[in-house]
Amino acid sequence: MPTYKAPTQDQNFVLHDVLNISASGIPGYEDLDRDTTEAILGESAKIAEQVLTPLNVVGDKEGCTLENGVVRTPTGFKAGFDAVREGGWTALDCDPEYGGQGLPYIISTAVGEQFSAANIAFNMYAGLTHGAYSAIHAHGTDAQKATYLPKMVSCDWTGTMNLTEPHCGTDLGLMRTKAEPQDDGTYKVSGQKIFISAGDHDMSDNVIHLVLAKIPGGPEGIKGVSLFIVPKFLVNEDGSLGDRNGVSVGNIEEKMGIHGNSTCVMNYDEATGYLLGTEHKGMRAMFTMMNEARLGVGLQGFAQAEVAYQNAVDYAKDRLQGRDVTGAKNPDGPADPLIVHPDIRRNLMDQKSFVEGARAFVYWGAAMIDRAHKLDDKDADGLISLLTPVIKGFLTDKGFEYATAAQQVYGGHGYIEEWGMSQFARDARITMIYEGANGVQALDLVGRKLAQEGGKHVMAFFDMVKTFCKEQAEVEGMAEFIEPLKTASKDLQAAGMYFMQNGMKNPNHALAGSYDFMHLFGHVCFGLMWGKMARAALDNLASGEGDAAFYETKLATARYYMARQLPATVAHLRRIETGADTVMALDAAQF
Q1: Which of 94, 96, 346, 398 could form a disulfide with 102, with the two C-beta atoms 3.0–4.6 Å apart?
Q2: Do 59 and 122 meet the contact criterion of CB atoms below 8 Å apart?
Q3: 259 confidence band (pLDDT: 50, 70, 90)
Q4: What is the rounded CA–CA span in Å between residue 22 and residue 9?
């Protein structure tokens, strides 16, 4: 059975040596010294390793079942969920007014990485609840907050987001779910939603659905969409549970992966709903949580690559196959371990350099979200909004790629279910699709985010890279990291210039290159992260303190990324500069 070891040393390296969070000036961060984060992540690691990891295979094999209208989760999930709740892990960054611990979002992100790597399907139950909590916290009335948030913070009640319908996915303006206003101020919600993660289960007393629907007579399309709180059980004035609402599970989707999560078809039959926020402004309320939700999905992508990588490394060290061409490394055995072979090393270094770069990128993004929320920093909010589609799209594309790369290390055994590697690939695959498919992320990046506020935020990113390169240029040992980053940044700027010069004349020239641009941008962000990690490693080695072997390993991995991965920006730029002509050359009938 696959194993998982929480990478707490690397997590703390990013938090403290790279981001220097306790000195960042963000409210709440001053309390996050190394001892504190080591203690928190050490305890969460125990839950991830001892409780969630053993349930991962169970969830994959058993899945969820629908029995007489009740969804049953896999064996052990309820006990595991209770352990997570009782440990306060669902309340880390929630508002203390409603029972939360009030810690910064970045700590919840670091813990979330461990939990997602250990058991992505399980962690989604609390993750969806946090998203619904955030929407109610931001847009709910005082009465709604008082009614729902304390129970959602503790996960005594869980939450969902209901967007997709059978005939509409990304284009939510086509939805048919209706909300008829009632004389008492409530609404009768009717319609069907599909692909609803954690839509129903047996681990909480109530499920609080957030449902997008249209109020009759409202504007056409997306401008007529409103958001409603529709609980599974109605809540009495004293907070106790009342009658069952007109909400039922039509089916549990049979999926490629994340079997332990109950992805449901939800039917609403004149269910009582309560308007959340303003009429016809449902998307505004829903987008409150999009940066966090999409960052969370990017995290899921690299977390699956992390756990797959860990197991691939163990296998490569143990499995004897062939001899090292430079001389036997295991002369007393029948063969050398797989890890001696250069192509296996290449594969593992691809995985390692991705996972560690992704961790730094996501934590940096989480710090920007904290800065935006806690300091009302508009620049931080603008920059994380720009980078969100990159985090979501690039990290999940690559997360799936490297989960399958880890599977490849096993050869034929990687394709056999008993080794568990296929689950990581299957579970990682959904991250490229939900919370906005990655093609949509690329279109959002190029079609909306680049031009926001006159391109202010992308120019700020370029200035950030330029300033970093200038500051580090004279630092001994940094040149080998700075020069590749400069080159990659110039490729990204050239791609942006191509869009400016050609996109206005023919928008397809920009949109046809959007996916390559998203990946090009991702590589440059990783180059920046690896530059920062290299500098932190050099500083720690110079000080003579800490784990020298760890820092030397970090530098070697940084060199690998700069030499073997960052040059991919050249290929992405060349494809972008070919424009849309070859992409759009065929008529639909010719496909």
Answers
A1: 96
A2: yes
A3: very high
A4: 17
CB burial of 194-219 (b: ≥16 within 10 Å; e: otherwise) equals bbbbbbbbebbebbbbbbbbbbeeee
pLDDT bucket at 170, cuts 50 / 70 / 90: confident
SS3 annotation, 359-392: HHHHHHHHHHHHHHHHHCCHHHHHHHHHHHHHHH
Separation CA 293–CA 134 (nearest Å): 10
3-state secondary structure of 355: helix
Amino acid at residue number 313: V
Write the CA distances from 61 to 313, 404, 412, integer angstroms: 24, 19, 20
- Non-local CB neighbours of 408 within 8 Å, separated by 6+ positions: 347, 414
Give the active site residue among 435, 453, 483, 545.
435
Q: Which of 46, 38, 4, 10 is nearest to 355 (CA)?
A: 10
Express as a percent the part of the chain with pLDDT over 70. 99
pLDDT tens digit sequence for 125-148: 999 999 999 999 999 999 999 999
386, 372 Cβ separation under 8 angstroms: no
* Bridge partners of residue 193, in order along the sequence: 266
Cα(294)–Cα(201) distance, integer angstroms:
24
In sequence order, what are the residues at sequence separation of 6 or more whose Cβ sits closer than 8 angstroms to the Cβ of residue 393? 298, 432, 438, 441, 442, 445, 518, 519, 522
The per-residue pLDDT for range 482-520, each reduced to its tens digit, is 999 999 999 999 999 999 999 989 999 999 999 999 999
Q: Which residues pair with 265 in a beta bridge?
A: 251
- With beta carbons less than 8 A apart as the criterion, state whether 557 and 504 touch: no
Whether pLDDT at 300 is above 90? yes
| Cα dist from 229 to 94, 252, 468, 521, 591, whole Å | 19, 22, 46, 37, 44
CA atoms within 13 A on the CB side of 198: 28
CA 9, 519, 487, 451 torsion: positive or negative? negative
| Distance (Å, whole) CA 558 – CA 384 | 24
**What tens digit of pLDDT does each residue of 529-572 get?**
999 999 999 999 999 999 999 999 999 999 999 999 999 999 99
Side chain identity, residue 268:
Y
Instruction: Please report the pLDDT score of residue 283 as a whole number.
Output: 86
Upper half-sphere CA count for residue 517 (Cβ side, 13 Å): 32
435 flagged as catalytic = yes
Quick check: 390 and 521 in contact, CB under 8 A?
A: yes
* Residue 544 confidence (pLDDT): 95
